[in-house]
Amino acid sequence: MAKFSEAIKKTLIHEGGYVNDPDDAGGETNFGISKRSYPNVDIKNLTLAGAKDIYRRDYWERLRADEITHQQVADELFDTAVNMGVRTATKLIQMALDVHPDGVLGNITLSTLNKSDAEKTLLKFKLAKIARYTNLANKRPSNRKYLRGWINRTLGA
Question: Would you say the pTM of this structure is higher than 0.85?
Answer without folding.
Answer: yes
